[in-house]
Amino acid sequence: MIFDLRAASLAVEGRPVLRDLSFSVAGGDRVVVLGVNGCGKSTLLRLLDGLAFATGGEVHYGGAPLDARALGDPAFRRRFRGEVGFLFQNVDAMLFNPTVADEIAFGPRQLGLDDVDNRVARQADLLGVTALLPRPPFELSGGEKKRVALAALLACDPRVLLLDEPTANLDPAWAGRLVDLLAGRADLTVVAATHNLSVAEELGSRALLLATDRPGLLFDGPTAALLRDPMLLVQSGLAHRHHHTHGGTDHAHFHVHDVE
Fold it and tell me: Cβ distance 1 to 62 under 8 Å?
């Protein structure tokens, strides 16, 4: 088992953000975390990445507790950071090197991996950023930055990818290429968070649905089944029931909130 959460909760400055979450993620799983802004999707990814720690319950990675004590152990920390890559929603927080080439090379160098130059070239080509290698990351567009950040993660050969709104800032063509890239990597375990229902099923065959101010999960099951359940989407805030009058007759339609 890659991740195992048992009644995990997390409070920020005394305010509950995640409450009583229990689920597991096995190797090779493709999981999409859904919910409206503010429901705790990003916080859940931070919890899985060891950037925040449960204030109640338990979180395990590979059968071992994932907590401050574990990450204080150099051997565990090195293994965990080498195996788990986290793509932030705001990738500006990830980019700090003088050039794109240095950015992609940074992780492999820190981990002591071999063949760094070839890793940089290979991932730059895969993500279409080869022409950007000499440029400073801060000069790039939002979509270019996201592709550079993803190239930097993949250069470390992770076994797990945590993706926060992975298609945000990408144009439709590159959003599609990202989906294809992930689909072609059966060796990766992927947990992706989004509120964009139009890409949900492509990002993960299994969906976890969070709701604001409610403990646990509203849903844990096939993404396709969730997308066919408008009442559950309304309950979570990802859709609403819109009433209007047409030709003297009252109508009600379900509308999905699908803006990035």
Answer: yes
Determine how β-strand 189-194 pairs with β-strand 160-164: parallel
Distance of alpha carbon 52 from alpha carbon 76, whole angstroms: 16
Task: Give the count of domains, the chain.
Answer: 1
- Other CB atoms within 10 Å distance of the CB of residue 177: 16
What is residue 19's three-state secondary structure?
strand
Percentage of the residues of the chain whose pLDDT score is greater than 70: 92
Instruction: Compute the mean pLDDT over every residue in the chain, rounded to the nearest whole number.
Output: 92
Q: Where would I find the beta strands (DSSP E) of the chain? A: 3-12, 15-25, 30-34, 56-61, 64-65, 84-87, 160-164, 189-194, 206-209, 219-222, 239-246, 249-256
Q: What is the CATH number of the domain that holds 165?
A: 3.40.50.300
Question: Token pair for residue 186?
Answer: 């059966």
Residue with more model confidence, 116 or 235 = 116
Please give the residue range of the domain that contains residue 122: 3-256
| Residue predicted with more confidence, 173 or 13 | 173
Helix or strand (DSSP H, E) at 81 = helix 74-83
